[in-house]
Amino acid sequence: MLVIVLFGALVGVVAALLSNAAGFGLPTAILTGGSAFTATVVLQLAILHFVLADQ
């Protein structure tokens, strides 16, 4: 679970930095990073659930 959250945080920070570098304002970059974090964590949890469901 810790790896999933840390990877999500990394994706969120990179997405926010790229959004800010593209010229969007800071609030938009923060929202983009938060959305990327949420999507990454939800996807990783779904994959984990799918992998562990067969056991």
Set out the fold topology.
Blueprint: H1 2-21, H2 26-53
Structural features, described:
With 55 residues, this protein is mainly alpha-helical. The protein contains two helices and no strands. α1 packs antiparallel against α2. The longest helix is centred in the C-terminal third of the chain and has 28 residues, at 26-53. The protein is elongated, with a radius of gyration of 13 Å. The two termini are 18 Å apart.
Beta percentage is: under 5%
Query: What is the SS-derived class?
Result: mainly alpha
Low-confidence parts lasting 5 or more residues at pLDDT below 50? none
What count of helical segments does DSSP give? 2
Rg of Cα set: 13 Å
Main pleated-sheet profile: none
Question: What sequence of helices (H) and strands (E) makes up the elements?
Answer: HH
Q: Compute the average pLDDT.
A: 96
* Quaternary: single chain
How far apart, in Å, are the first and last alpha carbons?
18 Å
Shape descriptor: elongated
State the helical fraction: over 70%
Summarize the structure.
This protein has 55 residues and is mostly helical.
What keywords describe this structure?
55 residues, mainly alpha, 2 helices, 87% helix, 0% strand, elongated
